[in-house]
Design goal:
Radius of gyration: 24 Å
Largest sheet: 5 strands, antiparallel
Number of strands: 12
């Protein structure tokens, strides 16, 4: 956690992550351009700019597909938590690569006429009534504008001033941007590029994103199907709760609940972080505090309050243990209300 706003919130781990990410990006671009020249069909001769347009375009799409897969996969394996923790950096990097792609397109295809390049983008192909001939570049431009808005407002300053609900709603626009990019590729390069690699990138990327979200949603529905005990919701047997981790319970009504085990203590809080609405149940307990997997905001187990000097508060829930099974009361306490954790081995 950081007490004050900082332009870039880097620590040693994030610096190592960014170094590996930048290295991966450079390796992909070099390999893609090299393979483009090595496999170009007879009679074709790509310029370096054309090769880079394809390289940056495919990379931006693959990175955005990966970003959308991080959340669903992280719900099933802790190995993806580092990507969840650094998702904001990946998102900003994706926008910059998309911006490079768009800049090269404007320069190469619209920059050498008397018409303004941006105006040319919208009027050079007037077939807006056609499906197969639709000006696909416009779709990519709109997607880039959405990605710009998300990258520009990714800083904590905007989250604090817009509020978590508005901020999260704004960033859900990533799904609109992704849909526009799918259409941009399908109506663009796939109309004239017949090499299977481009079909594979679009098909595998889109299918993976859709499949993972469906699987994650089905798993969430199964979690909501709990056998109640006097109105309480069954969470899990004790041996099913991993130390320092949580089970996420989704009541039929109300917010999702994160039920944590910390040694011999069981405690429950809302699954929604006050910072940017991150999923607290996908975080872990560090030194008695729940740590959000998105940006490391922390809350005490026993009262849902951030440790001083921070003032954020989240709702707490009562828990009980009966015959080795953990239950949670779905009625939330007001944010910051002390709620004693259940003790394993003690009568609840």
């Amino acid at each position: 956690m950081s007490h004050d706003y900082k332009m870039v919130q880097w620590n040693a781990f994030k610096k190592r992550f960014d170094t590996w990410m930048i290295g991966g990006i450079a390796l992909y671009l070099i390999a893609f351009v090299g393979l483009t020249y090595a496999t170009q069909p007879a009679g074709h001769s790509y310029t370096p700019i054309q090769a880079m347009i394809r390289a940056t375009g495919t990379l931006a799409f693959l990175m955005l597909s990966f970003i959308l897969c991080i959340g669903p996969v992280a719900r099933f394996t802790h190995r993806f938590k580092p990507f969840l923790y650094n998702r904001r950096h990946i998102g900003v990097a994706t926008f910059l690569i998309g911006l490079a792609h768009g800049g090269l397109v404007l320069l190469w295809y619209h920059g050498f006429s008397d018409t303004n390049a941006l105006v040319s983008l919208f009027i050079s192909n007037p077939r807006y009534e056609s499906i197969s001939g639709f000006p696909f570049e416009v779709l990519g431009f709109i997607a880039l504008i959405i990605m710009f808005l998300m990258a520009a407002t990714s800083h904590d300053f905007w989250n604090a001033n817009l509020g978590p609900s508005v901020w999260k709603a704004l960033h859900m626009g990533v799904y609109v941007a992704y849909g526009l990019l799918v259409a941009h590729i399908a109506l663009g390069i796939l109309q004239f590029e017949k090499r299977p690699i481009f079909f594979a990138i679009l098909g595998v990327g889109a299918f993976t994103v859709i499949a993972l979200h469906l699987i994650s949603s089905i798993a969430s529905l199964r979690l909501s199907d709990r056998i109640g005990h006097e109105g309480w919701l069954r969470v899990a047997d004790l041996h099913e709760l991993e130390d320092s981790r949580a089970k996420i319970i989704r009541p039929v009504d109300g917010d999702a609940i994160a039920v944590f085990r910390d040694g011999n203590r069981i405690a429950a809080v809302t699954n929604i972080c006050r910072h940017q609405g991150g999923p607290l149940g996908e975080g872990k307990v560090v030194d008695g505090c729940i740590s959000c997997p998105w940006h490391g905001f922390q809350y005490r187990l026993e009262d849902g309050q951030s440790p001083p000097p921070f003032t954020e508060k989240i709702a707490t829930y009562a828990t009980r243990i009966l015959d080795g099974t953990v239950y949670v009361n779905p009625k939330p306490n007001p944010p910051g209300t002390p709620q004693a954790p259940s003790e394993i081995g003690a009568e609840s």
